[in-house]
Amino acid sequence: MSNNHIDRLKAEIEPIRQQIIQHPLYHHITTVEHLHTFMQHHVYAVWDFMSLLKSLQRSLTCVDLPWVPVGTASTRYLINEIVVGEESDVDQNGVRMSHFELYLSAMEQSGADTAVVKEFIRHIVEKKSIIQSAIESGLNEAAVNFMNNTFEVIESKPTYVQAAVFTFGREDLIPDMFLGLIKELNKTLSGKLGILEYYIERHIEVDGGHHSHLAYQMTSELCGNDSRKWQEATAAVKRSLTARLHLWDSVLEKIKG
Predict the structure, then answer these.
(1) CA separation for the pair 56, 54 (Å, rounded)
(2) Residues 112, 98, 147, 139, Cα dihedral to 10°
(3) Of the candidates 75, 85, 95, which has an alpha carbon nearest to the alpha carbon of residue 50?
(4) Contact predicate 212/172, CB 8 Å
(5) pLDDT per residue over 43-62, tens digit each?
(6) Which of 67, 89, 72 is closest to 201 using CA atoms?
(7) Cα gap 93→113, rounded to integer Å
(8) Which residues, including other chains, have CB under 8 Å from residue 32's CB and lie 6 or more apart?
């Protein structure tokens, strides 16, 4: 889907988007240990993306009892369709799971440490705050800063801004060469990156295809023709992309030692 507002937003964010896609981090991931470092940071971006998704569903549909219609049926359909795919997709064997759970499976198969992120989730389940959960789990500062930006959007920004950050703050940011690298590493590691390879391919297929079109439509419906809303949305997307850029900077520093 394309319209003038979306085209202008894309043009505004393209410079920083290219910085992320062309980030030197990708070229420095040459060993499975490097990849583990990457995954142990990236997993929090996968997790808080799910939180942003559920915030949108909560705002755009009725999740309370008794039920009443909320918003437009069109917008309800768009967000519910995305939720189904993100929260209950299939793994390479056809088993239903969320994209976050699929990513954890990829980490475990590759040999990456999942103890910290699992401890973090345990604290979240216990209703502790993001900051408290992060501290008690020993999360790295870069991941915490990244999540703080996302939750600032969730907790303080209107729905149309959340929709824009969801749509453009995570869209199509992993370059093709990274998938090629994973495929080559997987060959040398006897298939230990098979789930990660599937995850990335699935991400490109679903998130970068069908879901991105639904998300464009959702953002367009919520922002309408209000130039102020589009300006707010664009500024928030830029902040989100800057947070991703800083996360990648931190991962690169860790890899380079």
Answers:
(1) 5
(2) -30
(3) 85
(4) yes
(5) 999 999 999 999 999 999 99
(6) 89
(7) 23
(8) 110, 111, 185, 189, 192, 193
3-state secondary structure of 89: strand
32-60 vs 227-256: helix crossing angle, rounded to 10: 160
- Nearest CA among 111, 115, 85, 87 for reference residue 101: 87
pLDDT at 1: 45
Res. 2 pLDDT band, cuts 50 70 90 = very low
Evaluate whether 144 touches 45 at the Cβ level (below 8 Å). no
**Single pTM value for the model:** 0.93
- 148 SS3 class: helix
Q: Which two tokens stand for residue 35?
A: 């990849």
**How many residues in the chain?**
257
Beta bridge partners of 97: 89
Q: Tell me how far the alpha carbon of residue 115 is from its chain's centroid.
A: 21
**Do residues 95 and 202 touch, judged by C-beta distance below 8 A?**
no
* Contact present, 79 and 218 (Cβ < 8 Å): yes
Could you give the residue ranges of the DSSP H alpha helices within the chain?
Answer: 4-21, 25-28, 32-60, 73-87, 99-110, 115-125, 130-137, 141-156, 159-168, 176-188, 194-202, 211-223, 227-256
Of the chain, the end-to-end C-alpha distance in Å amounts to 43
Tens of pLDDT, residues 163-216: 999 999 876 778 888 888 999 999 999 999 999 999 998 887 776 666 778 899
